[in-house]
Fold this protein.
Amino acid sequence: MVAGSSRQCAERRFPLATGTLAALHFPAAVEGAPRVLALHGWLDNAASFTALANALPELEVLALDLAGHGRSDWRPPAGSYALVDHLPELLEVLDALGWPSCTLLGHSMGAAIACLFAVAAPDRVDRLICIDALGPLSLDEAEAAARLRRALSARREPQPRRRLFARIEDACVQRGELNGLSAESIAPLVERGLAKVADGWIWAADPRLQLPSALPMSEAQVQQLLRALSVPVLVLAADVPDPRLPKLQVHARLDCVPQVQYARLPGGHHLHIAETERTAAEIQCFLASGPG
């Protein structure tokens, strides 16, 4: 049983060609339940879905620690954390699970990866649920050269030291304040995201995850990919935008998706933690709505 969880779940490990991915597996209460592969946001981990999985006992949920996050392996020194580099790993995980297809659930960066995977492997995705994101962040084409130079320069700079916490509770308070959440609600995510060292606790995520991407897509490229989505899509947006995140052209992107439902819920960027019951209710309605 995982801390903060009221539903039985198990640790899973997936040895892949690129490294081992860790996950939390929440079995469903009945056989043949819908299967959900959940992908967390940037610098989060699988435990960000603990409360939501507890609220959806009728679903089988496999929440991954994406590479470099949580208890998954870091990429090798020459490895990349570009969004597309996660896609082959998702195929390997689905194959290892024996899941011909599933519903993809993603939050923030995880939603961006889920969108790309649904376009690249449409036969493996039944439905797509995006929490406070729809597609990857885009780049103004006029900024491409400067972004490329900055990305190369950043990769030659020393990595910053990871913050040290004397107690897990201190990390919960710090992360809760950062994300506008209570220390109690964020505790499962924080506990899974820390590594023990001699003097206390540090974040376990690979510091290289904070390097800028070299060549993000343009907005036109993102919207073209969204037009290729062939499955029903649910987008749940936070009522309180995170001021640290770039503003997305949400409505322009929604117009690109052939089959889309959209709802705005109370709360901030981590609305699946802050407003778990409402988020679960929207997901239940979406999954019960039938094909297309």
About this structure: The first strand starts at residue 10 and ends at 16. Residues 1-5 have pLDDT under 50 and may be disordered.
